[in-house]
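Please complete every field before forwarding. Incomplete forms are returned to the sender.

SECTION A: IDENTIFIERS
Entry label: holo-255
Bound molecule: adenosine-5'-triphosphate
Molecule representation: SMILES string

SECTION B: INPUTS
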Amino acid sequence: MTNDLLSLDNVTVRFGGVAALDKVSFTVRGGQVAALIGPNGAGKTTAFNAISRLVRPAEGRIHFDGKDLLRLDAAALSGLGIARTFQNLALWPGMTVLENVMVGGHARGRVGFVTSLLGRPARREDGELRARAYAMLDWFGVSDVAHRECKGLPFGTLKRVELARALISDPTLLLLDEPAGGLAHGDVRELGELLLRLRDERDMTLLLVEHHMQFVMGISDYVVALDFGRNLVAGTPAELRDSPELVEAYLGTPA
Ligand SMILES: Nc1ncnc2c1ncn2[C@@H]1O[C@H](COP(=O)(O)OP(=O)(O)OP(=O)(O)O)[C@@H](O)[C@H]1O
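SECTION C: PREDICTED COMPLEX
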């Protein structure tokens, strides 16, 4: 697949007098693993927030799957096929792993999640959701903890649970905010393999914000670097590896 799935076109986001994004443009093609990189404060999270409509750009356009995202109302967004994970895990600690994953599906399904938690007679839709949640946990290799509370489980396991929850709504595009953050070396490698399997086996498109450069360069098809809210450079990892602009942005101008 080589179609343009997501495109930002001259997007500007201002917070008071500060332009967190200043005419930022980039395109993510369907079936790609793409990454947004850049030093602290470059505007990466703001770009994610603009795509998921948590902040509203002052200028510019964002297109997803042929639709003008900024013209859709919030209600139309949920079924559009964009899911995200957060920098700090956004799981309910006192609920079981399975329940947490089912919450992701209820955002899309018709049965109210509170209703199902209250133990009303299981409806067919709820049973289907439960089965899908199990299957998703199984895919991520964590179905053995389905009935454990999230509280107290290892961080690497919880990261997988969060991915399962994001994917249960069957999105086309998955936004991952610092997926490797806080993971041990071995877990980072396994996460990379999982993300590539999502692309290859489930035909997903991924856009990640990430500081772990070795991880980014190892799994991405396309990398967009921002600095001070502006486009800096973009290209394949091979094209960017020796980019003087990138080195300068991270390390400062050579003396
Ligand atoms: N809600 C906000 N109100 C005011 N300023 C903000 C807000 N969110 C972000 N900013 C500012 O916008 C700029 C870009 O921030 P952003 O968090 O998008 O950068 P980032 O590249 O994600 O950084 P990091 O790598 O540290 O997470 C920064 O100068 C930041 O202080």
